[in-house]
Specification:
Largest sheet: 9 strands, parallel
Number of strands: 21
Oligomer: single chain
Number of helices: 9
Helix content: 10-25%
Structural class: alpha/beta
Length: 392
């Protein structure tokens, strides 16, 4: 299909909406927005280019809020053009929006990475026909995290907080509406003050790479933290006398969590348990993918070290898991294989991440007036097509 910015009609589609599934409906797209939703399978709309789904299922486009790269490209080293290549790869996997995620690094590396992100934001909105998933902003995974729960992050770049200048020194995309997100460990020196400062500057704050006690986490909540990063990973395991971050996150209904549904970071039985305890309203799927995603097994130079991929599992020289090699499509397939409903999957892969990033007024669900950011999946969960802002 070629790009079509005018009037387009999707017919004979199963349409997954927040409150229902239209078993055989249609969607009219005009000027990149959803102009009409109908239970009529194949209405006649003069001048519209018709795309017949023949019963395939239409989901809201997936949004990945935590991803370090893919197809051989690392967000820490990528140029704006390379980030666009990642966007094009992700679009083939159902992703319509993503948040390039940065690991702790030197100031110059941060500056270069954010400059590339800034140059890639809004690229296809400017009429470029090389459609891809939208870059929505930046996610700093650290540097204000705990060296006791470093995971694959390099502790020599970790920082503590002493003044607002520690936040303002971090480069962010100078683009209106660009999302700013940070993963923080509240127990570090100055951690609670850091969270308050981030909240005052409009950052989205997520708790992760942490060993904080429930009391400290309560204070982090009061300061403005509302989310948890790759829940259960880079945290001490749940203990009946020391609940830690996992127990706190499970007990607090107001807290949302993102999860890596690859069957490696979390066993499938744990995915089912988390869904039972937190519900699909409070869980967001992420990939946490690294540059090796889409490249197959092998050894890769990433973040200044060798990361091996074997049968889909990543590991660094210390044997720690170093991100994943899945995409959001793989996470969706995993959850569907566990019997999770299409509406719940759409919530976790699109609606919840859009709400977390505060862009749910324009995307994250199939509704009148929202952006036509859509993915059509066949019965076997293969992608039929992806639409970003009305463009195929």
């Amino acid at each position: 299909m070629t790009a079509q910015k005018g009037l387009s009609l999707i017919t004979n589609a199963r349409i997954v909406q927040p409150d229902r599934i239209r078993d055989s409906g249609s969607v009219l797209i005009e000027a990149g927005r959803i102009a009409r939703l109908s239970d009529e399978a194949s209405p006649n709309v003069a001048g519209a280019v018709v795309h017949n789904l023949n019963g395939a299922t239409l989901y809201p486009g997936f949004i990945d809020v935590h991803i370090h790269g893919s197809s051989g490209i690392d967000t820490m080293e990528a140029s704006a053009d390379e980030l666009r290549l990642v966007s094009r790869f992700l679009a083939t996997r159902g992703v319509t929006g993503w948040l390039p995620t940065l690991v702790p690094a030197a100031e110059e590396e941060y500056a270069n990475a954010v400059q590339a992100i800034e140059g890639s934001i809004g690229h296809h909105e400017e009429g470029n026909s090389e459609i891809g998933a939208r870059v929505l902003g930046v996610h700093y995974e650290g540097p204000f995290v705990s060296d006791l729960q470093c995971g694959a992050l390099h502790t020599n770049f970790f920082r503590t907080y002493s003044s607002p200048a520690d936040v303002t020194a971090l480069p962010v995309p100078a683009v209106a509406g660009a999302v700013k997100m940070m993963t923080v460990a509240p127990e570090i020196e100055g951690g609670l003050e850091l969270i308050s400062e981030l909240a005052s500057q409009g950052w989205i704050i997520s708790l992760g790479h942490t060993r904080a006690t429930p009391a400290v986490l309560d204070s982090a909540w009061a300061a403005g933290a509302r989310h948890m990063t790759h829940f259960m990973n880079a945290m001490p395991p749940l203990h009946h006398r020391n609940p830690g971050p996992v127990g706190w996150g499970l007990a607090r209904d107001e807290v949302t969590c993102d999860i890596i549904a690859d069957g490696i970071h979390l066993d499938p039985s744990m995915l089912k348990l988390l869904l039972k305890l937190k519900s699909s309203e409070r869980l967001t799927l992420i990939s946490d993918a690294i540059a090796a995603a889409g490249m197959g097994d092998g050894k890769y130079q990433i973040w200044g070290e060798t990361i091996s991929v074997s049968e889909g599992r990543t590991s660094n020289l210390h044997g720690s898991i170093a991100g994943s090699v899945i995409t959001m499509l793989d996470a969706v397939r995993m959850m569907r294989s566990l019997g999770v409903s299409e509406m719940e999957v759409a919530r976790m892969a699109a609606t919840n991440p859009a709400r977390l990033l505060r862009v749910d007024h324009e995307c994250g669900s199939i509704a009148l007036g929202k952006r036509a950011d859509l993915v059509a999946l066949e019965a076997n969960a293969e992608v039929r097509f992806v639409i970003v802002g009305g463009e195929w």
